[in-house]
Amino acid sequence: MSASLRALRNTFIKDASASASAALSIPETEVERPFKIVVIGGTGAGKSTLLNALIGEAVLLPTNCMRACTSTIVELSYLTEACVGETYVATIEYLSPEEWAAQLDAMCRTIALARKTFLEQCRINKTEDDKKENNWLIAGTPASDAVVRLRSVYGHSMEESIMTADAITLHCHPRVLKVLSCQKIQLAAASAPELSLKLTKEIDPENQSINGTHWPLIKRVSIQGPWATLMGGLHLIDAPGLHDDNMARADVVRCFLREADAILLVSTIKRAANDKTTKDLMPLEFRRGLLSSGRLGQLAFVATQTDELVPSEIRRNLHLANSTSPIECAVARNTYTKHRLTEDFFRGVEMGLLPINREGGGAFGSFQFPVF
């Protein structure tokens, strides 16, 4: 565990202990309100590893269930009550039949429109591309994304209905209807590995490529465990990002962001300073809103995978001497990343020009965007 991550975890534990001690003198209605930290980052940002480190687990979510982990909202909290032998509890909440029906209709319309537009273009241009199977399906388009998601849900056994946007047939699929009718499923286990195995069986059943899987139908997952870090009422919420193509989940993410007491933006240190995804995590209106609403201190950035470095590459990129040691290279990269992220945070934000936010300005000195 890196020094920065260790410091972040120690801060969480210290705050959790303080919250637990202070809870004795707080009215019951206030104790029941959790302190929510939303963790946002793109695929491969290392959010799961970060969260596992913060709560002290080697593995919590199934390793062969990465699609569900990266595209599903996961809320972690302390388990206050449990049955004997059950110290880990997970609640899986599925989309309602109405929510999935609306999304299915929208995806089928997108697929049908893309196919129709392609065939009309072929007719106008008098080409024979329309004779090539699925030549209209262009990767990265809304229609392609819809096909990928429907294949994940229904499997390749329903390929014809998916490619022809046969919403009526898809609506009547018995397995999907059965899953959606459950609404919520609760799993309990005596250990994190045992719970991980149960989640795998529930979310990623066998023969998923043929019969389909459940994970695209999941709205959110709540997991409770015996984690001292969260004992004081802290909730960690692993969000899939600000641009989830699942409308119901995107609405839940926006709701969590509105209710969040703090937000952690996560990206690998290699991408943190330059990657477009990182900048997308801090859009201008989002930063202006934080500043104008007085929530400046409720946002922090976590750069992950800091233990992965190539000294020669860092020396070249940061114009360091060839004699610079690996440790000095790591420190220089950390300093550079913090500086760039702080610059990006205040870019275009008028309040960043106020004296309180300038070096040496005001009684509070300068504000440094927290980067771990």
Short key terms for the protein model shown above:
372 residues, alpha/beta, 8-stranded mixed sheet, 17 helices, 47% helix
Task: State the helix count.
Answer: 17
* Uncertain runs: 19-30, 358-365
Distance between the termini: 13 Å
Percent in strands: 5-15%
Q: Biggest sheet, open or closed, and with what strands and sense?
A: 8 strands, mixed
Which outline best applies? globular
Number of strands: 8
The spatial strand order of the largest sheet comes to 4-3-5-2-6-1-7-8
Structural class: alpha/beta
Work out the radius of gyration.
Answer: 24 Å
Average pLDDT, all residues: 76
Q: Helix amount, in percent?
A: 40-55%
Order of helices and strands: HHEHHEEHHHHHEHHEEHEHHHEHH
What does this structure look like?
The structure is a single chain. The protein has 372 residues and is of the alpha/beta class. The protein has a domain at 97-176. The chain is 47% helix and 14% strand. The chain has an eight-stranded mixed sheet, sandwiched between helices. Helix 5 (97-125) crosses helix 6. The longest helix has 29 residues, at 97-125. Residues 19-30 and 358-365 have low confidence and may be disordered.
